[in-house]
Structures are given as C-alpha cells and as structure tokens.
Amino acid sequence: MMQGIWELLDAQVAAGRMPGYVAAVRIGGDTEMHAGGRRALEPDSAPMTDDTLFRIASLTKPMGAALTLSLVQDGVLALDDPIDTWLPEAAKGRVLVRPDAALDETTDLERPITVRHLLTMTSGWGVVLEDSPLQRAMIERQVFPSAMHTPMSADEFVAAVTDLPLAFQPGGGFLYETGFNVLGVLLMRATGKSLTDLLDERVTGPLGMSETAFVATDPTRLAVLYTPSPDGLALLDPADGAFASPPPFEQLSGGLVSTAADVFRFYTAMADGGAPVLTAESLRLMTSDQLTPAQRRGAAPFVDDDTSWGFGTGVDLTGAKPGTAPGRWGWTGGTGTCAYVDPSRDAVSVLLTQRTMLGPDDGPEPFWVAVAEAAES
Questions:
Q1: Among 116, 152, 302, 376, which has the minimal tally of Cβ within 10 Å of its Cβ?
Q2: Do 304 and 158 sit in the same domain of this protein?
Q3: What is the average per-residue pLDDT within 152-173?
Q4: Do the beta carbons of residue 327 and residue 317 sit within 8 Å?
Q5: What pTM was computed for the model?
Q6: pLDDT (tens digit, 9 = 90+) per residue, 347-375?
C-alpha cells in the first residue's frame, strides 16, 4: 500500500534534494516506518535509521499547544487570562500606529494580550516579513526567529520582545512564531518549572517519547543540518553543533530534537482522541479553525484561502490542494519536517529530513500527495 511513498522519498534522495529521511505513516490499521539515505552528505556517513535524531523545528508548536491546553484543563491558567499576570513586562505594551511605522509612533493597548492570543499568534508579536523599523529592531536585538537557538535567557528574551511595540492591537492580525516563545516563558513562570520538566510530566513522559528534548539525547545519532544554496546543500549545523548541548533558552516555538518514532507517537495519540494528554474537547479546540476572516487575510504566507490556524497547528479548510482534506491538521518545520493527521482518510504521516525549507513553496507537498494516494488506493 505504501510503496509509492517510499519510492518518492528515495527518488528525492537520489536526486540530491536531501541526504536522507525517516518517515512513519499509518493508514487505517497499517503502520510502516521507513528510512532512506544518510545522516550527512559524505558517502561514508552513517545511514539513516529509525532512531536518527532531527531538529524538528515548528513541529514543536503542536506539542507546545497540547502542553498549554493540558494546563488549561487543570485550571493552572485559562485561555482568556491576561498574560501580564505572569509577564508583567507585557502590561506596558505599546502598539505601532501602522506596521511599518517608526518605533516611537505608537498608541496605547486597547485590550490586554491573553493566552489565547499567544496560541493563535494574534498577539501582535511575530515574524515581520517586510523591511521595516520593527523588523530591523528584531534582527538587531536577536529576537528575529531562525533555525538556531536564541542566544539569551528566557527572561532576557521576554524583556527584549516586550520592549518593542506590537505590530497591531491584540487580536487585530496574525504574525508567526514570536508569541509562541513568549507563551513558553509564561508557562514556566505560571508553574515554576522548566519546559523540559513540564513536557516530561504532561506530554513526552505519558506518551513514551523518551528521545524528545531540547537537546540531542545522543548527538552521535543527530543528522547533520543543511540548507539549499546556489552550489548545492550547504552545512548549517553539524551533529556536534548547536543542538548537542542544552540551549540558553528552551523555545516552545521550535526548539525540540526528536525521532520520527517519537513524533509519530504524539500524532497518533492525538489522532486517537488525545488521551492521556488531552480531553476530546481540548483536542477539538486545538485542531479547529481559531482565526477570524480578518485575521486569516493578514496571515499570508502561513495561511491562505484553503487553510487556517488552530492552537499551535495548521488546519485545512477546503481540501482544494492535492493531498489535503477538510479537517486535516498538522504543521511543517523549517528544518525539513512535517506531520499531519487526516481524519477523512484515517491517515497519520510524519516525515523528518535534514534539509531546510527555503519558503512556503519549498515544502513536502509531494509527500502529502503520496500519502493521500496510498490511503485512497
């Protein structure tokens, strides 16, 4: 049933798109895991195996959302709680009069930023794609997102972000990434625990995800990370590089290292109802459209006419694109990772590679199509 999926991925390795991959797919009651290629470009490097570690980037976000909703279930915090309860730095926030305004052209907050705003990326903090004073300030202060670690502590990160104005009033738009890292700091302050401990208690521990952490559990099994360049794949992070030792700041937006088997455990648990991490209602909230039409219009290129955003995860609305379907949910990571649950096809799919994406048009769409075709065959 799944041979076409593996043939596609093996062909991409042979063509030089990526050095290797590990993927896991469940269709109906059938599950297969497959590894192809090598952990590095060198022909004598170790082959990919089921226990190869990858920097999973934004696949961290759905796990972070599940963590947050588990805390909501237990009454530790609520979706509409103002974040300045735990992040007093946010109470002094200012808002740009327009997204490209000078940093001192601001107005007062019209409403407090809430936990819901951080989960839906509608807080006013996030990736500014156009050149502007705000984008330049984020880069200068080293809080503009990247595939590598943010070189500061959690408290320093919050101080740097909250010292900048918001691009819009809370709830007034959508900006990717930054708010999720602010959310991670909020969870640590609300509980007095590290994200490592919280995830172990509430997500990775209950699901048996022993290889998932903010540092490689065994750097010798970590795939080398590459990025496309005019001369082919260029080294971005070696196996003994940034993710071989604990980071200065555990990033809820994209800091986890994991294996395909561990990521698959998370997504199959969610596909099967959410237990023991989430209730069915929490899972429904997480995986359903949480954006208004106005917010979606401003969310490009992360959201388009056929997709939206739930809590920490993308959601398919129309199924108009090949391989997609209404109600399908999941996300991709900039380091070449993706994972999706497709209830309409009874399919769960995970693909981990070590080739970064250049942008929204440089993703794993052929893999999604292959999974859909296998499910429909």
A1: 376
A2: no
A3: 96
A4: no
A5: 0.97
A6: 999 999 999 998 777 889 999 999 999 99
pLDDT at 362: 83
Token pair in block for residue 10: 């093996």
> What is the Cα–Cα distance from 159 to 268, expressed in whole angstroms?
37
On whether both 326 and 351 belong to a single domain, the answer is: yes
Range of the domain at 202: 3-68+197-376
Domain boundary residue among 191, 218, 253? 191
* Length of the chain measured in residues: 377
Residue 326 structure tokens: 């209404």
What is the CATH classification number for the domain harbouring 150? 1.20.58.710
- Domain end point (choices 156, 191, 226): 191
Q: Tell me, yes or no, whether 73 lies in a domain.
A: no
What's the per-residue H, E or C state across the chain?
A: CCHHHHHHHHHHHHCCCCCEEEEEEEECCEEEEEEEEECCCCCCCCECCCCCEEECHHHHHHHHHHHHHHHHHCCCCCCCCEHHHCCHHHHHCEEECCCCCCCCCEEECCCCCEHHHHHHCCCCCCCCCCCCHHHHHHHHCCCCCCCCCCCCCHHHHHHHHHCCCECCCCCCCCCCCHHHHHHHHHHHHHHCCCHHHHHHHHCCCCCCCCCCECCCCCHHHECCEEEEECCEEEEEECCCCHHHCCCCCCCCCCCCEECHHHHHHHHHHHHCCCCCCCCHHHHHHHCCCCCCHHHHHCCCCCCCCCEEECCCCEEECCCCCCCCCCCCEEEEECCCEEEEEEHHHCEEEEEEECECCCCCCCCCHHHHHHHHHHHHC
Question: CB of 106 within 8 A of CB of 181?
Answer: no
